[in-house]
Amino acid sequence: MTGQDVCSFSVLMPSPYKSKPYPLSNYVDRRVLMSVTCRYCKRRHNYLPADLIEVFGDVDADSVALRFKCDGCNSGGTLDVDTFTPQGKEAVGLRIRRLVSVKIKRVPVWKEE
Ligand SMILES: [Zn+2]
Asked: What does the pLDDT read at residue 15?
């Protein structure tokens, strides 16, 4: 076996840490909330999976972190997403960020005639 063979073999190896996609719809109806926390400014919001589906579609739960932008420090890529089921004391007075509406941005497209 040459050095080159070893190299091409390792490139074809599947990534060991990437698990199967886990769509957000798996969390709906299970009283699971998703918390999104900014590592930078520590701002945290709790969301209902159903609201996130409304915005992003039924995407992989892991990918939610990449789709959000922190509205505290306006940075992207610094967010941690966790799922949890509020119980007992934790559930009392827990604030959940609900989706009010989705604004569609109108972008004009021009053409010279
Ligand atoms: Zn932040």
From this structure: 55
Domain limits, the chain: 17-91
- Whole-angstrom distance, CA of residue 68 vs CA of residue 36: 9
Q: One-letter amino acid identity for 48?
A: L
Percent of the chain exceeding pLDDT 90 equals 62
Beta strands, E only, the chain? 33-38, 44-47, 79-84
pLDDT tens track for 8-30: 444 555 555 566 889 999 999 88
Q: Distance from the CA of 17 to the center of ligand 1, in angstroms?
A: 27
CA of 68 to the centre of ligand 1 (A): 11
CA of 67 to the centre of ligand 1 (A): 14
Sign of torsion, CA 81 87 88 91? Answer: positive
